[in-house]
TrEMBL record, chains A, B:
InterPro entries: HTH_LacI, LacI/GalR-like_sensor, Lambda_DNA-bd_dom_sf, Peripla_BP_I. Residues 7-61 form the HTH lacI-type domain. Residues 345-394 are annotated as: Disordered. GO terms for molecular function: DNA-binding transcription factor activity; transcription cis-regulatory region binding. Pfam families: LacI, Peripla_BP_3. The keyword Transport does not apply. CDD domains: HTH_LacI (cd01392), PBP1_LacI_sugar_binding-like (cd06267). Transmembrane segments: none annotated. Keywords: DNA-binding, Transcription, Transcription regulation. Residues 345-359 have a biased composition (Low complexity). Residues 360-394 have a biased composition (Polar residues). This is Periplasmic binding protein-like domain-containing protein. It comes from Bifidobacterium ramosum.
Length: 407, 407
DNA sequence: CTGAAAGCGCTAACAC
DNA sequence: GTGTTAGCGCTTTCAG
């Protein structure tokens, strides 16, 4: 039997014939311990199979080195991939990860924020589904939060978003470049997907910029961005007797449903219709025919989000962190290009006028918003004052494959 | 500002004008508290935005209500789905879930078991990748463990497995029933997949039982069960100049790669070759053509694993738990059908002799193994003695779709 | 039914 | 360099 129940530091101290504090010193890598003493302690630890009780440590230190992650649904490849990246980056940053699903219900999301889950974590990475811009005050908690995605639009938060508009813009433009002239978009009105307005905007701007007239009958709704909805969308297109030569899908699952249904109806991809998706999920390249898709670069999203959160936890200015330095403007710099202007609501299609050119560039863009210090800074030892909240936009790129090939 | 930093029970007690203990009583639903008192406390809690500090609670109680989950790779649909199910079932059981990736390295897996991660959890659900049967003693820790899958074969553990052999057996037999006579299997020798021998056995038995001669040149290896390997396998089949009319894939990812490559080479599915996969991953039905696949019923796997683990944590005999009652033989019953006889090693193809008929049935089967009490029972208040370890086999079923259709 | 005191395992002051 | 003490927020005796 290797491990007894609850081997404590005290047990180790006794076994090694030293004091409790010395054991603590060794365990925590305190430098000024005699080599002989250290060895004794280490041996005792080995013999007893001791490992620190992080619960006690957490209670005492007031921090746990655990990061909370709250995402809607792991079964969606997008979130599975995102989670995987976040867990990896957290691990690399020396933190553990604890998961609480969001998106179960509004109550559930509020409970994640305000319930006892919070006492387990030093900070939270949140991708809410039910909370909206109006709930901004619900985020006033005593630990730092980094939001991922467009949901819950408020400036007064650190946030990492992907280049939604630009991504779809390029996807659409690439279809035009390949000769498509009647291009449908599938996924309009997607429920609970805050990035839908940006994506629709990207589609429309691409058509405008390439001189193709908008035709709203080609903007096919899909409540749930899931394969069956993609199949249904094709049904709608056929029912209306519309001829299209290109279809932009707001995510890969829709695209798979679309391609499946096209095939069933004897339409060839890419010969008759070219299809492009969004997310570049792992299946996209192994789908038949392989699917061109917009890669949101979730690894960068994760790296940025974790770095940002860790900075806040440590009460450190994000711009002093390596992983963020290249991405965050210096505190002194005047306000940067503002990206993805705050949509007042998720009313989609109506106001297609803003969309600053900046969002069509291909590099990290950051905007500084708000001015309140991070709450974390208030109780961190670090006197370093923390500047305003930050929104990082991670560039996405189009990956071209068979489904948009020219033959 | 809703929440101040660290509102404590003491704060609530002062605010409500009662003692600390009374607050504790209210929070923990102790029955004998005057209604008026309870109301005062509840009001104070609301006003202050108090929620219990589960870290302190854990330290004091010696248990955290957190279940550890350690799986290899969330990007594989199989594990994403499994994780999602586990998290849902844990939630339903009133426990939180904390994740630590396994499969990073052997050291990492040992660290999950013996490192400080353990002090955060009451019990662990583990699907190891590097630890093998020889490491059985590494599982001697002071908290209960439930293993999922075939990896790390040892009787002296609670374990939930799926009906691997039977699943592939039926998949193969269904191809035969549809007229296939030269049936390949893809995925032989899959590295780090302990269920591979069972699956290969299922394939072979199905051929034997239907009177088709084995041809080992049709058993195509694939180290990694991933799309590219599936594509490669088709390459191998072609290179050898072999004609096949059916392909059994050891998982869906392989099947997708196979179908992709077949298509590229102008082979029609299901007309020329029928293909069947394993896992019934969410994409299987939206792949084109939709993929017949074996559904391992991960929701049942998760439900069983969580129920089993919770029983051990609570020091309760699993057979007294509702979710398990129908599945676990009564402690008094003599030893049940033994399922999936313990393979002495993962040497795959060599000993295809055992495989009891039981594993081809379609219902839950349980074997009792070992006799040691759960360690958990030793320090649980419950005097109820815990019986030997249990292996639950969850039945899987074949879902037939387009890729095996007869035309 | 309610209050006071002890202690879960650890770290941070401060002695020695 | 090392030992001693107090206390993180909570539950649990044990009195009242």
């Amino acid at each position: 039997m290797a491990a007894q129940r609850h081997v404590t530091m005290n047990d180790v101290a006794k076994r090694a014939g030293v004091s409790l504090k010395t054991v603590s010193n060794v365990v925590n890598g305190y430098r000024f311990v005699r080599d002989a003493t250290r060895r004794k302690v280490l041996d005792a630890i080995d013999e007893l199979g001791y490992s620190v009780n992080v619960v006690a440590k957490s209670l005492r230190e007031g921090r746990s080195n655990v990061i909370g992650i709250s995402l809607p649904d792991m079964r969606l490849p997008y979130f599975a991939e995102l989670y995987s990246c976040l867990a990896g980056e957290a691990r690399a940053a020396g933190r553990r990860v604890i998961f609480a699903p969001s998106g179960v219900s509004r109550t559930n999301e509020l409970d994640v924020l305000h319930g006892s889950f919070a006492s387990l974590i030093d900070g939270l990475i949140l991708s809410p589904k039910y909370l909206t811009g109006g709930d901004a005050d619900k985020l006033n908690v005593d630990y730092p939060i980094v939001l991922i995605g467009e949901q819950m639009r408020t400036n007064a938060r650190d946030r990492v978003i992907t280049e939604n508009e630009h991504g779809i813009y390029r996807a659409t433009a690439s279809l035009v470049a390949k000769g498509c002239r009647r291009i449908a978009v599938v996924g309009v009105g997607g429920k609970g997907v805050a990035s839908e307005p940006m994506r629709l905007r990207g589609y429309r701007h691409a058509l405008e910029d390439t001189g193709i007239a908008l035709d709203t009958s080609l903007e096919i709704p899909a409540d749930i961005w899931y394969q069956p909805a993609g199949a249904d969308a094709v049904g709608v297109l056929f029912r209306d007797g519309l001829r299209v030569d290109g279809i932009v899908c707001m995510n890969d699952l829709l695209a798979m449903g679309v391609m499946q249904e096209l095939r069933r109806r004897g339409v060839l991809v890419p010969d008759d219709v070219k299809v492009v998706g969004y997310d570049d999920s792992i299946d996209a390249q192994y789908f038949a025919p392989s699917l061109s898709s917009v890669d949101p670069d979730l690894r960068s999203v994760a790296r940025t989000a974790i770095a940002l959160l860790c900075a806040r936890i440590d009460g450190v200015d994000p711009s002093s962190i390596d992983a963020l330095r290249s991405v965050i403007p210096s505190p002194n710099a005047s306000s940067q290009t503002t990206v993805s202007s705050v949509a007042p609501s998720v009313t989609a299609a109506s106001e297609s006028s803003e969309s600053p050119a900046a969002s069509r560039t291909g590099s990290y863009v950051v905007s500084r918003t708000g001015s309140s210090r991070s709450d974390a800074a208030a109780n961190s030892g670090t006197p370093e004052s923390v500047t305003g909240y930050v929104t990082v936009t991670v560039p996405s790129k189009l990956v071209e494959r068979e489904s948009t090939a020219v033959r």
